[in-house]
Specification:
Blueprint (H helix, E strand, L loop, with lengths): L2 H12 L24 E6 L4 E5 L5 E2 L4 H13 L20 H5 L10 H14 L3 H13 L5 E2 L1 H10 L1 H12 L7 H12 L1 E3 L1 H12 L14 H14 L5 H7 L4 E3 L4 E6 L3 E6 L10 H14 L5
Helix pairs in contact: 1-12, 2-4, 4-7, 4-8, 6-8, 7-8, 10-11
The chain binds glutamic acid.
The site of glutamic acid has 11 residues, from loops.
């Protein structure tokens, strides 16, 4: 597959696309990001890199971090996790409280905010320094120790995080949060504030296209069953209530974040990340969705 040619074609086709969507503003620091940032990076399973635009610039990965925290929690407590968080698409916005009422404080899946907060609680229970453990995991799978939190973004979200505070306290009332709400939120706000570039994200997510093994050394980080489950969750729940649309248009497992990043992967082929901050009404990068749809049109391949 000539990914070089395909990315060049995508770059030229989308170069003059008028900006549609709006940069997230409910986290004040994110509102400051220029809307015209645009980059893409594809890493194939043979270790070859292809990129254009702002692909090396780091941005706030936001909800994409939920894939890393889930992987770490699965490694820490195995199948016990599924007693506390379900694996069904939610069909409601990412920060919704309503389902928790009827479902006894068990979140629909680990990628809505409620589910990610339960996963954060698991990490707080199982690691003496959960923020450090999460960063160490990301450093291990990317081979890059310079990846870090942006403390300004974390503080900005903490200041305005009324809904996430409500979610964690509500789940605590059902007995589904073990630790102090403040400790769980501190980890959650920091994980969302991790800064990575499209290149870093492709480097991290190649693990999920390479059956859980690091590309360079083939060292196993996750079992093939764990990878199957994480990819299945990305496919069915990775885009909030637009997971069906992403599956329909792109046909790959992936995860988005309100920082405007989307990362997707084709098992045994590649991992790809796109960054464009303006979001569509469902909170997913508007341009990112279109670019990835074009990618699977041009390759002629998806998982389906
Ligand atoms: N930090 C964001 C929040 O909790 C993450 C949401 C997202 O990226 O979709 O609202």
């Amino acid at each position: 597959m000539d990914y070089n040619l395909i990315l060049k074609q995508i770059q030229s086709e989308f170069a003059d696309t008028p900006i549609s969507g709006r940069v997230a503003s409910y986290i004040p620091e994110l509102a400051k990001v220029p809307p015209d940032k645009f980059g893409m990076h594809l890493l194939d399973c043979k270790g070859r890199h292809y990129c254009f635009g702002d692909s090396n610039e780091r941005f706030s990965i936001q909800s994409i971090s939920k894939v890393f925290s889930l992987a770490l929690a699965m490694k820490a407590i195995g199948d016990e996790l599924w007693n506390r968080v379900d694996v069904e698409p939610s069909g409601v916005p990412f920060n919704s409280l309503s389902q928790l009422e009827n479902e006894a404080g068990i979140p629909r899946n680990p990628f809505i905010n409620a589910g990610a907060l339960v996963v954060a609680d698991v990490l707080v229970s199982n690691f003496s320094n959960p923020k450090g453990a999460l960063l160490t995991f990301i450093h291990e799978i990317t081979g890059d120790d310079s990846i870090d939190f942006d403390p300004v973004v974390a503080a900005s979200e903490a200041q305005e995080g009324y809904r996430n505070r409500a979610l964690v306290n509500y789940m605590k009332s059902f007995g589904n949060i073990e630790n102090k709400a403040a400790d769980v939120l501190d980890l959650y706000f920091h994980q969302c504030a991790i800064e990575m570039s499209c290149k870093d994200l492709a480097q991290a997510f190649i693990l999920f296209s390479n059956q859980g093994k690091l590309l360079e050394t083939e060292r196993e980080i996750l079992t093939s069953v764990q990878v199957k489950r994480i990819n299945a969750l990305m496919q069915t729940c990775g885009f909030y209530d637009e997971a069906g649309e992403f599956t329909f248009k792109v046909g790959l497992p992936g995860k988005s974040g309100v920082g405007g990043g989307i990362v997707a992967l084709h098992p045994q082929h590649y991992a790809v990340a796109v960054w464009s901050p303006p979001l569509n009404p469902n909170g997913n990068s508007a341009l990112g969705m279109d670019v990835l749809e074009r990618l699977t049109q041009l390759t002629g391949l998806s998982i389906f």
